Amino acid sequence: MTEDRLNTTGYNQQEDEDIELKLRPAHFGEYIGQEKIKENMKVFVQAALGRGETLDHVLLYGQPGLGKTTLSGIIASAMNARLRVTAGPAIERPGDMAAILNDLNEGDFLFIDEIHRLNRNIEEILYPAMEDFVLDIVIGKGPGARSIRLDLPRFTLVGATTRIGLLTAPLRDRFGVVHHLEPYRVAELATIVTRSAKVLDVGMTPEGAEEIARRARGTPRIANRLLKRVRDFAQVRYDGIITQEVAKSSLDMLEIDPMGLDSVDKKILLAIIEKFGGGPVGLDTLSASIDEEAGTLEDVAEPYLLQLGLIQRTPRGRVVTRLGYSHLGLTPPALAFAADEQLTLPLS
Ligand code: ADP
Questions:
Q1: How far is the CA of 160 from the centre of ligand 1 (A)?
Q2: Cβ atoms 280, 317 nearer than 8 A
């Protein structure tokens, strides 16, 4: 989702994927930030290796691009394990899930992205597989149907999700380790883009790195994408080095503002203000009014607007805050705000 929004400036997808692969950290030392999670995982890995056991199942949740896939690859390689990658929407039938599980070897890691999108009947196959490492298969149909139980090798399931709230309790409870990935600080993102610039062999000043980091919405994937775009400007319009000035003017051209808001974020704020009198407005109504998918709004745009304090969630929907108005250079209607302030009880 995030990718699509930023993928409008000329890169083809294959090129993007190749670069992304090069930039993806391969071990803990290259994985910046998320210190607590890293320390915990290192201990679990060391303990499991010491006992000669597989690692407990791990659930990673957080917004897209925060490093869930990367981290699972790092953990698998620290365990010297093979990583199998799939995604919730790709597993359509219970038979698909059974086939994936049946194909695992002892110690393998199975990464399921967007695990909240697994159908319930597919999810149910996972319960005994995760808990007892067995696969229950029903053979035949009708009165003659019988169930057989197959043993599975011990494996580690790593589930990733952007929506922990959509996970069923029985599935969530079967993960021994649950980690929430938080947005990154500007200094961490600056370190990430500095490393990426080296990998891509682009010259960049520390100020240039910081300018990109500030506009990257706390997300490493976005930071790397902005870096690639700015690199193009630096090469074509300047002398190839990414200075603060180069980063600033390139990102302005890409309509990424100094706080990292892009045209979609602005469209959201403006729609709430212009079409719904500043809110409150429900997510579905809002998404229909600006023709953006509700899921994208909820996963990508809204968390960042909330984090910056430009919008607020109220029991009756989203409202634009005073800060939101002033960020757009607009004056909030005084009267509406007096009423809103009594309503703005944070939801969660
Ligand atoms: P997610 O699975 O959460 O959507 P990814 O693991 O695919 O996110 O991360 C996207 C990209 O961001 C990676 O390819 C990598 O280049 C970069 N990245 C993510 N987390 C980190 C990190 N902690 N340190 C350095 N780079 C990171």
A1: 13
A2: yes
From 69, 194, 219, 321, the catalytic residue: 69
Identify whether the C-beta of residue 18 lies closer than 8 Å to the C-beta of residue 117: no
Ligand 1 binding pocket mutation candidate from 58, 221, 222 (most atoms within 8 A of CB): 221
Its pTM surpasses 0.85: yes
* Residue of 61, 87, 258 lying closest to 167 (CA atoms): 61
- Tell me the sheet residues that pair with 151: 134
Contact residues for 24 (Cβ-Cβ < 8 A; gap 6+): 70, 73
Cα 223 to ligand 1 centroid, rounded to whole Å: 10
Do residues 267 and 255 lie in contact, with contact meaning Cβ atoms separated by under 8 Å? no
Residue 238: CB atoms within 10 Å: 15
Q: Which pairing describes strands 109-113 and 156-161: parallel, antiparallel, or unpaired? A: parallel
DSSP per position, 65-102? TSSHHHHHHHHHHHTT--EEEEEGGG--SHHHHHHHHH
Strands (E), the chain: 58-61, 83-87, 109-113, 134-139, 146-151, 156-161, 177-180, 311-314, 317-320
Q: Is the bond leading into 280 cis (omega within 30 degrees of zero)?
A: yes
The C-alpha angle with vertex 14 and arms to 118 and 202, in degrees rounded to 5, equals 120
Chunk the chain into consecutive blocks of 10 residues (it has 348) and report each block's average pLDDT, rounded to whole numbers. 43 73 93 97 96 96 95 97 96 93 96 95 94 90 88 97 93 96 97 97 97 96 96 93 97 94 94 94 93 86 93 93 94 64 49
Cβ of 24 closer than 6 Å to ligand 1, yes or no, is: yes
Question: Residue 334 class from Cβ within 10 Å (0-12 exposed, 13-18 middle, 19+ buried)?
Answer: exposed
